[in-house]
Amino acid sequence: MATSIIRELQGLAAETGNVSELLRKAFIVAVKLRLDEFRKWINLELNGYVGDEVLPAYRVLPASVHAWNPVRGWIPIIFQEDGPLYRFVSSARMGKSIGEIDELLKSDSTFFVSKFAPKIAAILMSEQRLPMEPSQHISRSGLASILDAVRNTILDWSLKLEEEGIIGDGMTFSDSEKEKAAATDAVHVRTFINMVGNGNKAYADSTDNSVSYLSMPSVLNDVRKHIQEHAKGHEQTELLQKIDDLEGATTRSAGMKKFSDFVGFAANLSTVWNFVAPYVPKIQHLIASLPQ
After folding, report:
1. How far apart are CA 126 and CA 143, in angstroms?
2. How confident is the model over 152-176, as a mean pLDDT?
3. Average pLDDT in the 164-170 region?
4. C-alpha–C-alpha distance, residues 66 and 116, integer Å
5. What is the per-residue pLDDT across 90-114, written as a single tens digit (0 to 9) for each?
6. Is 243's pLDDT higher than 90?
7. N or C: which terminal CB in the chain sees fewer CB atoms within 10 Å?
C-alpha cells in the first residue's frame, strides 16, 4: 500500500514548513474527494481574497493606526477607545494570498503597513490638525497567526478524515471513501474554521472579529437610527432613500452598487460617517451572502 496522502498532510501540517505547499497538497485531496467547500477555501488562501469575498475570522487582525510625518517618521493616531471610529479602524482585513504573506514574513520588519481605502483615509485626515496620510500597522505575530490558522485547519481536517476511515492509497481514494467524505462534517469548511477563528466564529466582522449572523433589515434599521439622529434636511432624506434602495436589492451585484452609492454619499458627511462606518463590514458581509 502506497503512503497515504492524508497522513502526508498531517505530517506537513504539524511542521513549520511552506504553507503554500501544504495547501496545494490539501487541494488534491479536496478535488479527489469532491469536497467543493474545501476546494474553494484552499483556492482563496492560495490566490487571495478579493472583491466581496467574506474573510475568515483569523484574517481580521488587531491593528494600530499611524501617520507618516516627514520629520518624525511614523507617529500614532489616538482615538477614543470606546468610540465607533476606533472599533472600525483598529481591525485590519488581510486578504493577501498565503504566498504573499509568507514573503512578507521573510523580511526583518516588526510590523507591516496596510493602507486605508481613499475615502476612509480622507475622513481620518480631515480630523487631523496637520493632515498626514494614515495607515494601519499590523504586528509580525498577527500576520504569522494566519499561517498557523491555516496549518491548524488542515491538520484538524486531515485527522477528521482519518477518524472517518478516509486515508486513501497514495493519491487515490476508493468509492466508499468518497461516499464517507460526502456524508461527514469533513465536507464543511466551517466545521474546522470555527476552531481557529476568533470567538469560535467562522467568518469575520471587522469591528469585533466575530460573525454577524444578522439580517439585512436589522443592520439597516440601526443605520437608519444614526442617520435620523445625526443627519438633517436634504442629507437625511437622501441617506434614508439610499438605505431603502440597498434593502431592496435582491442580488449581490445590485447590492454592491446600492452599497457603493450609499457609502460614496455618507463618507462625505463626517458627522454621520463616524457613526455609520462600524456597520460597513456587516453590510458587506450580508451583501456577499446574496445570490449572484
Report:
1. 29
2. 92
3. 91
4. 11
5. 888 899 999 999 999 999 888 999 8
6. yes
7. C
Indicate whether 146 pLDDT > 90: yes
pLDDT digits (tens, 9 = 90+) for 273-285: 878 877 777 787 7
Q: Return the sign of the alpha-carbon dihedral for residues 208, 23, 188, 284.
A: positive
Rounded CA separation 240/163 (Å): 53
Q: Is the backbone of residue 23 left (phi > 0), alpha (psi -120 to 50) or beta?
A: alpha
Kindly give the residue spans of alpha helices, DSSP state H, lying in 67-117: 84-89, 98-105
Q: Which residues contact 97 (CB under 8 A, 6 or more apart)?
A: 45, 46, 47, 48
Residues 27 and 39 sit within 8 Å (Cβ to Cβ): yes
The whole-number pLDDT of residue 204 equals: 34
* Secondary structure (DSSP) of 24-79: HHHHHHHHHTT-HHHHHHHHHHHH---TTPPPBGGGEEE-EEEEEETTTEEEE---
Question: Do residues 287 and 279 touch, judged by C-beta distance below 8 A?
Answer: no
97 touches 105 (CB < 8 A): no
Confidence (pLDDT) at 84: 59
Q: How far apart are CA 203 and CA 198, in angstroms?
A: 9
187: helix, coil or strand?
helix
Task: Convert the pLDDT of each residue in 201-228 to its tens digit.
Answer: 333 333 333 323 347 888 899 899 999 9
